[in-house]
């Protein structure tokens, strides 16, 4: 099994870890942020799962589904997603995508923006991406424009992690 670790993916994962650490530190009291940050470049921390744990910690009503469940991470039908913007030469913009195959509810998306050292949050209703789920390659794209907006996804941007989890 190969894990692709790039400078950009490491920076993005470290930004997400730092942003969400307050929501997981009680659950993993033996781990310091620094020790977890050191593991990220080795690819040994599954940040996607960490995002789910942090969300369920932030909102006790978000019950994680442990094990394989098509289309959702939480019992309310919503799904947690992580994305990291990268520079796309052909489009001359920063881009990220999340796979929405089999998704059936709200997407709770955490987007790392390594070139700006920040993390953004998007809460996207199923009705916004439902048609994409039927595509051969069902990908919801986040593309940052020169004015820093995210086009049609901008209206689903929320200010805080807590709002994302509500």
Question: Can you give a write-up of this model?
Answer:
Helix content is about 30%, strand content about 25%. The chain is an alpha+beta fold and about 170 residues long. It has a single domain (about 5-165), classed as Trna Endonuclease, Chain: A, domain 1 (3-Layer(aba) Sandwich), CATH 3.40.1350. The protein has a four-stranded mixed sheet with strand order 1-4-5-7. It has a three-stranded antiparallel sheet with strand order 2-3-6, with no helix packed on it. The longest helix has 18 residues, at about 5-25. The termini are far apart.
Short description:
The chain is an alpha+beta fold and 166 residues long. Helices cover 28% and strands 23% of the residues.
Show unreliable segments: none
Strand content: 15-25%
Shape: globular
Termini, distance in Å? 36 Å
E-strand count:
7
Overall mean pLDDT stands at 91
The strand line-up of the biggest sheet is 1-4-5-7
Helical residue percent?
Answer: 25-40%
Pattern of helices and strands: HHHEEEEEHEEH
CATH topology: Trna Endonuclease, Chain: A, domain 1
Name the structural class.
Answer: alpha+beta
Q: Any guess at the CATH architecture?
A: 3-Layer(aba) Sandwich
Number of domains: 1
């Amino acid at each position: 099994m190969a894990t692709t670790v790039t400078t950009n993916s490491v920076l993005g994962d470290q930004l997400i870890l730092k942003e969400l650490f307050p929501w997981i530190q009680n659950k993993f009291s033996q781990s310091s942020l620094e020790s977890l940050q050191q593991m990220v470049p080795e690819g040994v921390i599954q940040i996607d799962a960490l995002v789910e744990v942090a969300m369920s910690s932030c909102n006790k009503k978000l019950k994680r589904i442990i094990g394989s469940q098509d289309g959702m991470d939480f019992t309310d039908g919503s799904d947690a997603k992580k994305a990291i913007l990268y520079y796309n030469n052909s489009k001359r913009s920063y881009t990220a995508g999340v796979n929405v195959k089999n998704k059936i509810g709200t997407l709770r998306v955490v987007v790392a923006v390594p070139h700006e050292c920040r993390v953004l949050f998007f809460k996207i209703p199923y009705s916004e991406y439902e048609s994409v789920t039927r595509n051969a390659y069902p990908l919801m794209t986040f593309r940052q424009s020169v004015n820093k907006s995210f086009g049609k996804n901008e209206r689903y941007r929320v200010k805080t992690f807590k709002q994302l989890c509500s």
